[in-house]
Amino acid sequence: MTTIEQTAAEDDPRRKGPDGLRALDRAMSILFLLASRPQGISLAEIARETGITLSTVHRMVGALRERRLVRETPNGMQALGPASLVLARGFLGGLDFRVEALPVMSELRERTGEAIHLGTLASPHIVFVDKLETVHAVRTASRIGGTAPAVLTSLGRAILAYSPQPVVDSVREATINLLGREIAADVLEAVLRDTRERGYAVDREENEPGVDCVGAPIFDDTGRVIAAISVSVPAERFDDQRMAVIGELVADAARRVSSAIGHQGPIG
């Protein structure tokens, strides 16, 4: 085998053993680079930025094109191919925020001893999609599948604080019709602004008498708010100091769930 043939064989992503692993690592480096350049990048730029020789880049890109993981754009640039979308859909389709949230919710209950809720918006309500009961004797009235006015709950406020303004306006108007009483836009905006500043929302017996709640938003891979997680505490065990402690725990829990379903970067 000539030197050229040996190098080509070592750079074949399908080869097994240490050389095959090195080829796989190089192929992944190329794919991650292409993911960061959705408009495409030249072979020479790939070689320069990955540190892989141009001849090896040419061979590896060719192998990736065969699997449709890479495509050539009309202007001759290299970009991710349609098969990468199949992989992405497979990853996203396998994610269920309820599944990802459950272990985080369990840990949050262990740390607080209180009831933990997971909810999503169904205007003008919040829908409780999961719940872990408190370790104490006194239970909250909420149940999985149940609803509550979003603007009155920490779950709903956490979601609305990071929702587009038309969504907030629509929920407020629908809630006025639901409750038969006025909800001032400026008052609601002040509540949502406070939520954004703190990083978590608070409900002081506004939804359920005798129960205070603290909630924080969950974001998906696109940065869109899709749900919220909360801790519910009997008002007799709740004060400003405990609110701050639980608020940080809830906000951290929500960040962890968001990260698990693909969210990166700042919230909102």
TrEMBL record:
Keywords: DNA-binding, Transcription, Transcription regulation
Ranges of compositional bias, category Basic and acidic residues: 11-20
Positions of the HTH iclR-type domain: 21-82
IclR-ED domain boundaries: 83-263
Protein's name in the database: IclR family transcriptional regulator
Pfam families in UniProt: HTH_IclR, IclR_C
Region span, Disordered: 1-20
